[in-house]
Amino acid sequence: MPSPLRTYLDALRHFPFAVLQQPQHYFRRPGRDFTRRRSLYLERLVWLNITLLKTTLSVELDQFFDWLGTGEFSVTKSALVQARQKLLPRFFRDFFQFGVSVYYQAFKIHRWKGFRLWATDGSGFRLPDEVELGEAFGWHGNQYNSVPSARMLVCFDLLNHLVAALQFHTRNTAEIVMAMRSVCQIPSDVLMVYDRAYGSHIIPFLHQHFGSNCVIRLRVDFSNTIKTFIQSGKDQQIIQEPLQIKAKKTLKDLGLSIPQDATITYRLIRIKLPTGETEVLLTTLLDKKKYRWPHFGQIYRKRWGIESCFFVIKSFMQLSNFSAYTVNNCWQDIYCHFILYNLQTALHHPLNKTIRKINADRLHDYKPNRNVSAGLLKRFTVKICLGPTAHLRALLSDYYRQILQTLEPERPGKNKERRRRIMRGTERHFHEKNYRRAF
Fold it and tell me: How many domains is the chain built from?
């Protein structure tokens, strides 16, 4: 019986072959594109893109063909540009979604009380300064200038370290509006965690309406109900109150028919921070015995996982370092970052048992270094996903040996005061001081 990782990798390797059977969905010229097996045929083009093209294309191509080990000379960068234009962005969007579904089918999934624990949050990124990109992705400007820029809303599986869903939007649409629109697509076995930016009665109402659940951190001055709860000294309290007029109007704009006497029932939970501050969480899980209130502080702390995900993708993988200046190829670049991130997570999965044994003999817990792992993946992805399957065991053994040599300590319970830093428009990428570029 094949291992979960082998099942996952075999499915990813097969996806480009399946696409050849439905070219009308993925190729710019169905019936003409990828009909011959050239040097840069479909499977090679796909995995070359997924390795993230961050240096000059001529160097990237030379490395790629060297890692293939077939003795072929590399193609020109013009050939690569022409080949990429044949493939529509929809291919990588569907490849990302396919990879997520295969991951959940192949691996044993970690859950909390039967729930997949997801977090939703948004982030922005800049694109090359081209008018075409600004018209396609949106603009971000001030009184002096405007630059192409976009925002993304990400659903991240906190226990399985997987980017589970993606949405992109312009800066003209607020993150909370995008989150409201996406609640109807959240599976019923998901417990979604939101930070204070998403505080409202509308999101929990939508979760209850569509059959899912959520946890939201609220500001202590969010409403008079919250202020009264804090003053009461209670650890938890179930609240039922009528929906406000503004909330009803927003729900109506979302296409829901709400009666005039509609109410919302939710549970408030008090959490005491190590700093002595009081934190208030709202949840739609009303069963006090099954879902005890002390657990929710631990759940919310896990939300930091999505921030770490953003850091890896935007800093280590250099999301804003694009390899092209066309809309089609920029979309390809964007989705490839998330495909590679999830592939990295899948490859780390078999190491969990080994790392637990290592941690048992150490003072601190250690984990794979995502920066080093991403740099190694650049060449190992080519060999693993395009090389003979007979070599897979040896390749993975070599990859894991290097990952275990570069483990880094986890830093739980960090209570440093958060400092907001100005991100200057002239800075293409941002890196932590103790990390160096792996791409």
Answer: 2
Return phi, psi of residue 4, to 5°: -55, -40
Select from 322, 407, 397 the least CA-distant residue to 371.
407
- The tokens for 44 are 């090679």
Range of the domain at 64: 4-91+336-409
Residue 416 has pLDDT above 60, yes or no: no
Phi, psi of 119 (to 5 degrees): -125, 145
Measure the N-to-C terminal CA separation of the chain; round to a whole number of Å: 36
Residue 435, classified by CB atoms within 10 Å of its CB into exposed (0-12), middle (13-18) or buried (19+), is middle
Domain assignment of residue 386, yes or no: yes
Sign of CA dihedral 349, 346, 108, 10: negative
Q: Specify the DSSP class assigned to residue 87.
A: B
Looking at the structure, tell me whether residues 369 and 295 fall in a common domain. Answer: no
434 pLDDT higher than 70: no
C-beta of residue 116 within 8 angstroms of C-beta of residue 84: no
Residue-level pLDDT at 418? 59
What integer is the mean pLDDT of 181-200?
A: 96
pTM over 0.85: yes
* Together in a domain, 87 and 117: no
Same domain, 86 and 120: no
Q: Are 64 and 41 in contact (CB under 8 A)?
A: no
263-272 and 236-242 strand pairing: antiparallel
Would residue 318 count as lying in a domain? no
The CATH number that applies at residue 208 is 3.30.2170
Question: Is residue 349 one of the residues assigned to a domain?
Answer: yes
Residue 429 pLDDT class (50, 70, 90 cuts): very low
Residue 8 belongs to a domain: yes
